[in-house]
TrEMBL record:
Keywords: Membrane, Transmembrane, Transmembrane helix. The chain crosses the membrane at residues 29-49, 80-99. Pfam families: DUF4233. This is DUF4233 domain-containing protein.
Amino acid sequence: MRTLCAVVLVFEAIVIGLAIPIAINLEGADPAVAGGLWGGMALAALLLSGLQKHTWAHYAAWVLQAGFLFSSFMVTGAPLVAIVFVSLWVVGVIMGRRVDAIRAAHEERAEQEGAEVGGA
C-alpha cells in the first residue's frame, strides 16, 4: 500500500508545482500566496512520499489530500485535478491493502509449506 501511495504523492507534487504559475498568470493569484501555499504542499507531498513507511506520514498525506482539494478552488479547473488525485489516493490505499493481504497470505502459505517439507 505504501508504495502505491508514495507514487501518487510524487505525481501529485509535480502537478501541484505546475499549478503555481497557472494560478499566478491566469488567475491573478498573489505569487506569495500561490507559491507559499502550493509550493509548501508540493514539498510536503514529496517529503511524505519518502516517509510512507511511517503510519503518521500516511495519515498526514490524507490531510494533504484534503488541503489540496480545498485549496484547488483558487484556480479554474484545479478542483477536477484535485478530485482525480484524491480518487487515485483512495484507489491506491484500497488496492494497496489488497496487495498487502495477498502478499501476507502467500508468505504464510510459503512458510507452512516450508515447515511441512522440513518436518517430513
